[in-house]
């Protein structure tokens, strides 16, 4: 059988670009096909936890990423109205020792640019909208809207939550609206009162809602995301919303948050969708990666981290079995499916815990956190050491 050489990746998101880098490091000829006419990411933040940072380190990108991102001191959970600290976990200077790497927040566009620049020119083909993919005679065959057809040894669907590659493999099944909507914004630090927002990754828990904020771009900007339960179900990363709408929705919350929202120039709104875990990710010479395989709610900040882990696992699995694509793809799925599904379920479950409405349920939750911290002060409030401690580069 022909050795695996040419790999076609559909989608130049964080998952597609990382997989192209990892595959090229293993000697494969990886090409990325992106539907958009230019390479860009939205103006929003993304957090990378130690499990994803270990992949950036293995790909030689960690130092550059540290320069463009921000390492928060602590993960802090606060109460929506009083601002009382419910629970706090030290991250800076501890995670490196405990989990083998730190925890960072970045502007998505900065990370996207860093990944794109790590690829040789010509690796990314723009205006390439993949409309069909399948396996013919031991090859993946991809078709595009402009009539182009290409063959590759393996095709990878890194085309996000609305993945057409997934539809081609397993039939059309739309993502599910989760009843959660997000507003998001970026604020220059000089536009909020000095010292109002600590250099922490902060999450405020309130009834039917939570708000997250953290610094990005070396501490120059504060990224915030306010998630709340609503039946507005338009999923677009680029739907602009009015600040007045956010300020009104959070008028009973802590005044620091109102100040943060009011200082935002452009605010966006989008509905959150997810998918059920898949029992298979691959068919013939085609496989899935990132949100196309396991889109999840953002409450553990793991969607991109899982895509980055997938990227490394795919490249190392293909490199270990260059002559046997089926065995290599099986190995990839074996490494990834259970872990990604577990993280997906944990992220979905967190929505309920963050958004508790009953005072009694909130008291029970907060008391459990306090007890846990008493027994082991360094433990993460969410008990997600199993996510952060994992190192896909050692598998
Ligand atoms: C509010 C919010 C906050 C989040 N915060 C975090 C966080 O802090 N940390 C974290 O790890 N994750 C976070 N996530 C999740 C994360 O954003 C996603 O999991 C991640 O971006 C998925 O990457 P991807 O490459 O799989 O897909 P995408 O980023 O969606 O990229 C898909 C790419 O494929 C292209 N494409 C689509 N269809 C086609 C086609 N037919 N042909 C060619 N190209 C195509 C698209 O144009 C796009 O460029 C968050 C998500 C949300 C909603």
TrEMBL record:
Domain of life the protein comes from: Bacteria
Keywords of this entry: Monooxygenase, Oxidoreductase
Residue span(s) of domain FAD-binding: 6-344
UniProt-listed SUPFAM superfamilies: FAD-linked reductases, C-terminal domain, FAD/NAD(P)-binding domain
An annotated Gene Ontology molecular function: FAD binding
InterPro entries named among the record's database cross-references: FAD-bd, FAD-dep_Monooxygenase_BioMet, FAD/NAD-bd_sf
Gene3D superfamilies according to UniProt: FAD/NAD(P)-binding domain
Protein's name according to its UniProt entry: Salicylate hydroxylase
Keyword Thylakoid applies: no
Species for this entry: Bradyrhizobium erythrophlei
């Amino acid at each position: 059988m022909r050795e695996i050489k040419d790999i076609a990746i559909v989608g130049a998101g964080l998952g597609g670009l990382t997989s192209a880098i990892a595959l090229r490091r293993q000697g494969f000829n990886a090409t990325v096909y992106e539907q958009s006419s230019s390479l860009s990411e939205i103006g929003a933040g993304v957090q990378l936890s130690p499990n994803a940072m270990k992949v950036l380190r293995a790909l030689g990108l960690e130092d550059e990423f540290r320069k463009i991102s921000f390492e928060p001191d602590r993960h802090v959970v606060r109460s929506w109205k009083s601002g009382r600290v419910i629970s706090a976990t030290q991250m800076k200077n501890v995670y490196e020792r405990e989990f083998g790497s730190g925890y960072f927040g970045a502007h998505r566009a900065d990370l996207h640019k860093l990944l794109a620049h790590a690829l040789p020119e010509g690796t990314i083909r723009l205006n390439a909208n993949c409309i069909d993919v399948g396996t013919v005679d031991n090859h993946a065959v991809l078709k595009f809207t402009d009539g182009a057809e290409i063959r590759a040894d393996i095709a990878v669907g890194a085309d996000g939550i609305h993945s057409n590659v997934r539809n081609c493999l397993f039939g059309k099944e739309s993502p599910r609206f989760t009843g959660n909507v997000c507003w998001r914004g970026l604020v220059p630090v000089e536009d909020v009162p000095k010292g109002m927002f600590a250099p922490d990754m902060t999450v405020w828990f309130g009834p039917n809602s939570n708000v997250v904020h953290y610094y990005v771009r070396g501490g120059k900007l504060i990224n915030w995301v306010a998630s709340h339960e609503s039946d507005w179900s338009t999923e677009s990363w680029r739907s602009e919303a009015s600040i007045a709408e956010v300020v009104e929705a959070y008028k009973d919350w802590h005044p620091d948050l109102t100040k943060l929202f009011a200082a935002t120039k452009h605010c966006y709104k989008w509905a959150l969708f997810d998918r059920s875990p898949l029992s298979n990710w691959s068919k013939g010479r085609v496989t899935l990666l990132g949100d196309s395989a396991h889109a999840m709610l953002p409450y553990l900040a793991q969607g991109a981290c899982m895509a980055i882990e997938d990227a490394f696992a795919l490249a190392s699995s293909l490199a270990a079995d260059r002559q046997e694509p089926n065995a290599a793809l099986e190995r990839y799925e074996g490494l990834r499916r259970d872990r990604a599904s577990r993280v997906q379920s944990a992220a979905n479950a967190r929505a309920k815990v963050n958004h508790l409405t009953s005072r009694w349920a909130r008291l029970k939750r907060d008391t459990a956190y306090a007890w846990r911290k008493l027994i082991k002060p360094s433990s993460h409030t969410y008990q997600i050491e199993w996510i952060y401690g994992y190192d896909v580069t050692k598998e």
